[in-house]
Design a protein that fits this description.
The protein is 0% helix and 66% strand. By secondary structure, the protein is an all-beta fold.
Amino acid sequence: FEYIGIKTRFGDVQVDNKLYTYAYYHNGYNGLQPGYGTYPGTGNGAGLPATGTVVGGTAYPGDIPGQTMSMNYRSVGDLLRMSEILGQGQLDYGTWIDYQNNNRSQLETDWTLNGAYNSGNQIYAASGNLAYTDRLMQDTLTTIQPYVQYEWKPNEKLTVTPGLKYSYFDRSFNTAVMQGTGQPYNGSQSWAKLLPALTTNYKVNGNWSFYGEYANGFMAPNMNLFTKPNAQTGTLQPQSTQNFQIGTVWNTRTLNLSADIYRIDFTNKISPVACGINTCFTNIGGVRYDGGEMQGTWMFTKGFSLYGNLGINNYSTSDGSVLPYTPRTTAALGGIYEQGAWYGSLITKEVGARNSGAMAATNIPFGSYAMTDFDMSYKFATGWSWAKQAKVGFQINNLFNRNDIFASTSGLTDQNGNPLLFALPERSYAVDFSVMF
C-alpha cells in the first residue's frame, strides 16, 4: 500500500487529498479435493474422482491432480475531502475515485508429471484448452462517489447533518474463459444512484445524548453474478438499503453505556447458494433486518475495566428463504487492563445460532459457539533517534481450544455424501513486535 497525502488551505477552504495505490498478488498451487471425495457435478455432469488424471489423451489413474492459479489485482484511487465554515455550521464536500484491475486464472494440472495440463476433469469440453481451464479472466471495477453534507448547529445542544452522495459503479470484462460458463465474455455494466442521508444528535447534558440516523445504501452486483450460465447481466440490479437507527449514549469518567435499535430494508438482496462444487448467488428479493444493540465499559478501579456487548438480530425475507450465516444473537464479555506501558485483555465472543445455507436441498443448522482470546502488550522507549516507541505483544487465540463447527462447504461432500464442515481453528499463539516512527 502506497499513498501521497496533501493537506493545505485555500482561503477558508481546508483541503485533504490522498492519492493511493495498493495491490495483491497471489500465484498458488492446489492439491486434492478436501476429504478425497468427488466433484459433485462438473461441466460434463460426471462425478469425477479426486485422484487420477488424463494428460495428452493418456490416462494416469494413480497420478495426483491439482491446480495452478493466480489472483492478481491493483487498485489506484484518489480521495479528496474539503471543508469550510458556512453560517451556523460546516460544509463538507469532496469525491472518491477508484479503479481496480483484476486478473485471475486457474488450470487443472498433474503434479506427478510436474504440472502437465490435466484434461481428465473435462471442465468445459472434452478436448482443447477448455478441458483443463477453469478460468482465464480479466476484469475492472471503476467507482466514482462525489458527496456533500452540511453539519448545522442551531444551538449548543442540537446538531443536524443532511447529506447527499452520488454513487457510480462500472464493471467490465475481457475474459477468454469465464468461470462457471467456460465461454469468452466481453462486456460491461454500470449502475448509479443518489444516496441521501440525515443524522441528528441532541445533547441532554455533558454526559447524555440521543441520536438518530437515516441513510440509503447501494452496492453494485458482485462479480460472481456474471459467472452463472446464461446470466442476464443487463437485468442485474444492485443491492440497495434504507437504514434507520435511533440510540442513546451515556459517558462518564468511569462508565460508558450505549444502546440502539435499528431497521434495515434490503431490496434485491443477493444470497449465496450451492451449485455443484461452486457457490452461486441469487436475488432473493426483499429482506428486513431489525434488532437492538447495547454495550458498556466500566472502569471499576484504576487500570481495570469490564466490557460487554449484546446484539439481537431478526430478519424476514419476502420469499420465505433462510439467510445463511445470519446469527440471531452476538455477544462479548471480558476484562481489560491498561495502565502505563502495559495492556492486557481477556474477552469471550459468542456467535448465536444460524444456518449454513450451503447445501442445495437443506440449510444445515448450527448452534451458537463462543471463543476466548487473550492479548497482552508492553510499550517502551527504544533509545533510537529514528524511532519514538516500540511495542512487544503476545496473544493466545482460542484460549480454551474450542472446536465448534461454524461453517460448511458449498456443495462438496466426502465419499459417503456427507457435507464437509469447518471447525474453529485450534489454540494458537502469536508474538509481535512493532516500532512507531
